[in-house]
Design a protein that fits this description.
heterodimer, A: alpha/beta, Immunoglobulin-like, four-stranded mixed sheet, 23% helix, elongated, B: mainly alpha, Ferritin, 87% helix, 0% strand
């Protein structure tokens, strides 16, 4: 096999591997940040892929929590300033702060 | 009871106007009013914990105790850092006097009526305090950190009001 052919094959393989890595990277679960400040979840509504992680960060001096709104099936318990809590998302979720019930958030799975 | 709440509301609004015209509340006085306003709501909540059997009321009252104690701690930490001593003044003294009257009414209230009286007072009180913070305490604060603390507390007061109104509707 001459040198030029080998070079073409090597280039082709590099492109295929690079494309494959890119695809894997794009499909890898991601982290999404929700800040808690001024008695709000920011953003209040977030769109994620199934398997992604949402991380809540409490940016204020009041304790807050993150709780399943419908049945309280899951919850973080209270956490303080600069503390975080995270959850891997597998379905649409409506949640709220069980300490400050007027604070609400929504997580939607992207189709 | 309604007349006492109305009087407190009227006084806070009048003092708000007074502050805007005269610009005479010093930062130690602002700090004193802020701390006293929080202590008053804690006192109402402590009575509610003794007298109410309603879960929504008890949950709300516990939240008031926790959150207002958090604010007091923030205020105390700040005045300590700034070497400021909160200074009693006409507004803080008037708040305390009125609160003592409301406390007596809450303590005397019959159990059947207590929950409604308590939550009605909470709605009115939070409205009055929000107005006072927005129109008096924040504008009167000279120190930026004190101003920022009051601005940080405002959303919590508004959330408390919304929560109180939610409980009020549920009763």
């Amino acid at each position: 096999m001459n040198f030029l052919k080998k070079k073409k094959i090597l280039l082709f393989v590099t492109v295929v591997i690079g494309f494959g890595i890119s695809m894997v990277a794009q499909n890898a679960p991601k982290k999404h940040i929700v800040e808690i400040k001024k008695m709000k979840f920011i953003p209040a509504e977030i769109n994620v892929k199934k398997g992604d992680t949402v991380v809540w960060i409490n940016k204020e001096f009041f304790p807050h929590d993150v709780t399943d709104q419908k049945t309280k099936a899951w919850g973080s318990g209270p956490f303080g300033q600069n503390e975080t809590w995270s959850k891997v998302i597998t379905k649409n979720e409506n949640y709220f702060c069980n300490l400050h019930k007027v604070m609400k958030g929504i997580i939607k799975i992207k189709k | 009871m309604k007349s006492l709440i109305s009087m407190l509301l009227f006084e806070l609004i009048c003092f708000s106007s007074y502050g805007q015209q005269k610009d005479e509340l010093s930062d130690p006085e602002v700090a004193s009013v802020a701390v006293v306003a929080n202590q008053i709501d804690i006192s109402y909540a402590e009575i509610a914990l003794k007298k109410s059997k309603n879960n929504e009321i008890l949950e709300f009252a516990n939240r008031m105790i926790t959150d207002h104690n958090v604010v007091i701690k923030q205020a105390v930490d700040l005045v300590t850092k700034l070497s400021v001593t909160p200074k009693d003044n006409a507004i803080s003294k008037s708040l305390v006097e009125d609160a003592e009257k409301i406390n007596k009414k809450l303590l005397k209230a019959k159990k059947k009526k207590f929950d409604n009286i308590y939550i009605d007072n909470e709605v009115a009180y939070h409205k009055a305090v929000i107005a006072a913070v927005k129109n008096l305490l924040i504008p009167e604060s000279d120190n930026m950190e004190l101003k920022e603390l009051l601005e940080a507390v405002l959303p919590a007061l508004e959330a408390h009001l919304e929560h109180a109104e939610m409980v009020q509707k549920q009763l």
